[in-house]
Amino acid sequence: MPSPNHYIPPVPPRLSAVDDTHWRNRAACLNHPTVPPWTFDDQAGNGKEDSAARARRIATAVAVCKGCPVRDACLADVDLRFDEGVRGGVDLRKLRAKQRVQLADLPDDDIRHGTEAGAKAHGRRKERACNRCLEGARRAKAERDAAWPAKVPCPTCRKPIRRRDISRHVKRQHNFGGAA
Hints:
Number of helices: 7
Strand order of the largest sheet: 1-2
Order of helices and strands: HHHEEHHHEEH
Helix content: 40-55%
Radius of gyration: 29 Å
Number of domains: 3
Structural class: mainly alpha
Strand content: 5-15%
Number of strands: 4
């Protein structure tokens, strides 16, 4: 019998019926008897895992997922921006690569060729911008640069200074901002 001063934590309440029916609680990877949870994660090797070891780990995880009753729900819950490893029996690196290929196969209807926006749209699709879009981006940058003068007067001495050098000039020439 523990002493009266010994703290005994309360027993956590049993999960409600709603939580018991959540698909994650029925997943085959949850408390698997032979496969540890880190097998499904890409951070398992901490960057020290060679490609053969990774392939074995991924194959083991995929084998566990093959017989999982909630495989489709698991795959539907994937967010490719953040999730890593194996989910729903699929290596997410391969799924991302497949998605990139599908994005490259999109029609050019959403790209306004010959504009800076077109060059950015190419970048979002993870592809090199076409020459028309590159030229449009250069033209837009030149227009922006022309709108802003190359040199501005120093607020203290009124000497014309290149815009990018103004803060350095003020610090060094006028002893503002710390060291001389």
